[in-house]
Amino acid sequence: MSITAQREAELLAKVPTGLLINGEWRDASDGGTFDVLDPATGEKLLTLASATSEDAMAALDAADAVQAEWALTAPRERAEILRRAFDLVTERKDDFALLMSLEMGKPLAEAYGEVTYGAEFLRWFSEETVRHYGRYVTTPEGKNKVLVHHKPVGPCLLITPWNFPLAMATRKVGPAVAAGCTMVLKPAKLTPLTSQLFAATMMEAGLPAGVLNVVSGSSASKISGPLMQDDRLRKVSFTGSTPVGKQLMKDAADKVLRTSMELGGNAPFIVFEDADLDAAVEGAMAAKMRNMGEACTAANRFLVHADVAEEFTAKFAEAMKALKPGRGTEADTTVGPLVEEKARDEVHALVEAAVSAGATAVTGGAPVEGPGYFYQPTVLANVANDAKILTQEIFGPVAPVTTFTSEEEAIKLANSTEYGLASYIYSQDFNRMFRVSEQIEFGLVGFNAGVISNAAAPFGGVKQSGLGREGGAEGLAEYTTVQYIGIADPYAAKK
After folding, report:
1. CATH number of the domain enclosing 367
2. Which of these, 162, 145, 128, 157, lies nearest to 63 by C-alpha position?
3. Where are the alpha helices (DSSP H) in 75-159?
4. Nearest 5°: phi and psi at 190?
5. What is the pTM of this model?
6. What is the DSSP letter of 208?
7. Which is the catalytic residue, given 120, 262, 294, 470?
8. CA 299 to chain centre
9. Smaller CB count within 10 Å for the chain: N or C?
10. Nearest to 183 by CA among 264, 260, 92
11. Is 262 designated active site?
12. Residue 372's CB: how many other CB atoms inside 10 A?
């Protein structure tokens, strides 16, 4: 059953359209606004207040004003807020799923999956809040005691991308709340609506005014620039492109800010000759087509052993061809639009360049005619190893296939990129899994699994895919600073 226009209108009417500063929704200081569009139609969904630099500083003022008090709240209190937020998000899964589908384009089934995934960060960190331990030990020579204490790092700037509007917010807000940090959240201008609704939900869950401030806006630099030059900001967490991440790291250097950077990816999907090909195709569909391929973890390069390449490619193309493009709210849609026209054009340019260089479009290979920013699910065969489509993120429903003949060659091809986020290995040989995973340069490895992201696991990359981790115990540590207290030997008087 498809979603009605009335249902959409009722949901959009629930979304706050202002800036959240010190617990209040307000207009931009200059009255500025920006429109949020439906990528399936190109039509306007809502108009939001567009934050100025002055608004960003007001948000930091609010965060700084309550940081000391918030840091001293009992861990159980912070945990209960996160748990209530988990319950509320889960209870309102229909609203969050539909809102994500409207502003980002993903099919409703995928959007519901993101609600489950995103909400889990709230539950996971609610449980970790009361289990973030320090330690008390004796120094090796026995003369002093060592007390190690974890403190909140302080006010944080959280910059989220457009492709996972709920999960990227919960993955950052969850550990920040757990650690006792206050926040200024800057959602992506293409998909800010889910963050607006999520922030309202956090307030309803009991988060005190000023702890979470939200400054949506059309200009990221007007918001991040002045904030990162202020001594009160102590951390920036960014998920997005490597070029933007590099610039933020340069800006962060001036104030020696704590940084977490989850940047670009160029994930290899390695299929060895002994792989279960049906399972590999199923995993390839999950790793490639989640979010229409618009994910930093998306399989970007399909490296297939020459002995099974033809069979794998044929089965993969058949599965891709069976997908049905459409607006995410339609009941039979299995692949939605790309997020904007520019993104679709960039994907098509990569495909055209690969085909011009000798690749074959086994299926797809062109934009979908009509309104919206749709692209045909595409499989390319005979792709040259030096093709541009293999060297940068595709961020679309396009799968280029190339071949290898040995384990050593597969490892070399996998590592032939400046990125190192996600990777996938399909083989029935566990010894090979250990050998290859230890030699490929990626922060995440999926072994016979196409989706491996989980709130309980550390997510992050190496090389130019970033630094730091989100999720797991490691994700909480990113929002704390370690303090060591050296204590004179309490038994000295008795010795």
Report:
1. 3.40.309.10
2. 157
3. 75-91, 93-104, 108-128
4. -75, -30
5. 0.96
6. P
7. 262
8. 15
9. N
10. 260
11. yes
12. 21
